[in-house]
Design a protein that fits this description.
The chain is of the alpha/beta class. Helices cover 39% and strands 15% of the residues. Strands 1-7-6-5-4-2-3 form a 7-stranded mixed beta sheet, with helices on both faces.
Length: 346
């Protein structure tokens, strides 16, 4: 209902003569404030970007790879982020892939390393990565750390001061209960970079409303990474979603989704499903059902009003604060019916 109400309010406000843009500006400001509060950041450390890929690009494009060419990423990286790092090879970067462990990262981190990228929770198998340990190792070598928190923010307590990372990105279309088209880039010290952004726009100016086409100035805040006008519906949805999430005890949410994931793993395994789930203490808010045709299984489950995500060899089943044991029972029942149908049609 919160999202429906937010979009209805957007439509109503966009018809008000002379007031629509002011209302939209307010949504941008409120969304930035609420996300900053959610991750323990200052307001001047948060930029609004269209998606996580643009956030990663803004970091990569403002770094020099000459003296320290190495980017350490991981095989657990979401492809969209990994692609940004790999694209830097044409700018002189050396990109290497670590695994899931601290040792796999430290094997590559040295004085040649400029940037280390590690997701908080891996997108495919929900592996909780050793972010703080990686941050310590990277900083000891003089490298910066980029954290993709898309699979964590909204169901996990995330505090950038505790993590110690230099950059963090998260979007609104998953656990923040919003829409695609909006993400946030946290920058610990946005004023420090090797280059100024080349992907920019009027929201990246010191005073966007100066409307000076000939002056290219950059603020000392994270808004220097911003470009053009953000997606209006996504801003309204973000305000509603983040408000709802911000009222939750995310420590309790983390425990709740962990218990549900474990229950789902047990019940699905008992009925013969192959479930890919790391141990509870190292797992995020989803589990994976291994299937020969993940996209097909996703479509069949949609026919039972169950929304999942096919990711490589698994169908990803995610949980949130509103998920419950009845949802797991419905999932198990749907899979039993689907498997019976597959058996008799074979």
């Amino acid at each position: 209902m919160e999202l429906d109400d937010a979009l209805a309010r957007m439509l109503a406000e966009m018809t008000l003569p002379g007031a629509a843009w002011e209302a939209f500006e307010n949504q941008i400001s409120v969304a930035r404030n609420r996300f900053a509060a959610l991750i323990g950041a200052r307001l001047d450390q948060v930029a609004i970007v269209p998606n996580a890929s643009i956030g990663a690009f803004q970091v990569a494009a403002t770094r020099s790879w000459r003296a320290r060419p190495r980017i350490v990423t991981t095989t657990a990286e979401f492809p969209s982020i990994a692609h940004v790092w790999r694209a830097q090879r044409q700018c002189g970067a050396e990109v290497v892939d670590a695994g899931h462990t601290v040792d796999s990262f430290t094997a590559f981190i040295d004085r040649k390393t400029r940037l280390v990228s590690v997701p908080l929770i891996s997108y495919q198998h929900a592996v909780r990565m050793p972010v703080m340990e990686v941050v310590q190792a990277a900083h000891a070598a003089g490298a910066e750390v980029f954290v993709d928190a898309y699979q964590a923010v909204g169901v996990d307590p995330v505090d950038v001061e505790s993590l110690g990372c230099d950059f963090l990105v998260a979007g609104t279309s998953k656990y923040l209960l919003g829409l695609p088209g909006l993400a946030f880039l946290y920058a610990r010290a946005p004023e420090y970079s090797d280059h100024l952004p080349t992907l920019t726009g009027w929201f990246g100016r010191v005073d966007p409303y100066a409307f000076n086409s000939f002056q290219l100035d950059f603020p000392e805040t994270a808004t220097r990474f911003e470009t053009g006008t953000p997606a209006v519906p996504a801003c309204y949805a973000a305000v509603a979603g983040i408000q709802l999430v911000g009222e939750l005890d995310l420590g309790l949410v983390r425990n709740h989704v962990g218990r549900l994931g474990e229950l789902a793993r047990e019940q699905l395994s008992e009925q013969g499903e192959r479930v890919c789930a790391v141990p509870l203490e190292r797992r995020g808010a989803h589990i994976g059902i291994v299937d020969a045709d993940p996209a097909g299984l996703s479509r069949r489950l949609a026919g039972h009003h169950i929304a999942v995500s096919p990711r490589q060899d698994v169908v990803r089943v995610s949980f949130h604060y509103y998920s419950n044991v009845e949802d797991i029972a419905a999932l198990c029942a749907a899979l039993r019916e689907i498997r019976r149908s597959e058996f008799f049609s074979a």
